[in-house]
Design a protein that fits this description.
This protein is an alpha+beta fold and 348 residues long. It has 2 domains: 264 residues, ATP-grasp fold, B domain (D-amino Acid Aminotransferase, Chain A, domain 1, 2-Layer Sandwich); 60 residues, no CATH class. It has 12 helices and 13 strands. A 7-stranded mixed beta sheet has the order 11-10-7-8-9-12-13. Strands 1-6-2-5 form a 4-stranded antiparallel beta sheet, with helices on both faces. The longest helix is centred in the C-terminal third of the chain and has 21 residues. The radius of gyration is 20 Å and the shape is globular.
Length: 348
Amino acid sequence: MKNIVFTDHINAWSIKKGLKKFGLDLFSIQKNTKLIPFIDKEKIKEVDTLFFTEENSLKEYVNNHNDYKFEPRYFNIELLDDKLEFANFLLGIEENPIPSRSLNTHESDYPFYLKCKHSWKDGMKLPRGFIVNNQNEVNDVIDEINDNQWDTDWFFHQKLLNSSIENNISTSGYFDYKNNNRNAIIISKKTHGSTSTMATGAVIETIKDPNNLIDRTNYILNELKYQGPFELEFFYEEADEQHYVLELNPRFWMQHGIFIDLYDNALIKRYLYKDKVDDWYEDGIAPYKHIIWVDSTHIIFSLLKFRLKPMLILLKLKGKKIFYPSIPTATGFCLRKVAKTIANKLKN
């Protein structure tokens, strides 16, 4: 079994917890409401917490956006679904994305990241991308793209970043371009997780603003006329001494549970327009609190596989620790996953 992060489960668990604080129940929310745009009732019967996943909702929008207007309602579909288009947009407003360009037949500056523009396309979940070190590897990836009947135009060339995982920094929370007083923004960094593809972190730690990243976030999201939950990722490349913009996740994201207990459920409160003037923060910046957010499923699976590094990292960190989902919920989930895997292997 792969030791992966179950973002579907964690997002569902935290949103469900946040809704409960307003007396809202999953089964009372209809398919066309703002908060939960797509509900698979059959899936709910199987696992009641899987009522919202960022990837499934994004996939549904990309494939069926004529039938439903995705929240946030002011976001351009081309920028939502195309990472190269977003990089070009950033250049157009004199921001600093990771250097990117269209893929050429014959490349020269190796190694680089052959990245996919899209998370989903034509109903398919696409790979994040491939690190390539020479033209032969580029050709091999293109062969794989063709074998899977993907389109080479779905991929682009991005500078490969080489700094440590802790240089992956995010501003996140809620943003309202119409009224910046409603904003609720925190800054966090990955302390443990994947580095090669900038994938989701298993341990996230809140930090103070290292270099005017909140000002940059306000500028970018105001230019986009953005309203809704978000995560804007930056990456500090030490060799270049630059905080590059990595990508924008226009949705509830994995660590948004930080807001539920420690910031008075600020994110969902704003999303449902239940906030009042007294709930607003100065300059839209949530007060700094040193918080360690932990993907508890990752920790449990690591221990089951006798991998102690995540737990050792966690024990060394000092700060308010919160676990998503809760340890009992995560333990039950992991044990069911293990049992299902064993049963499938026995069948085969």
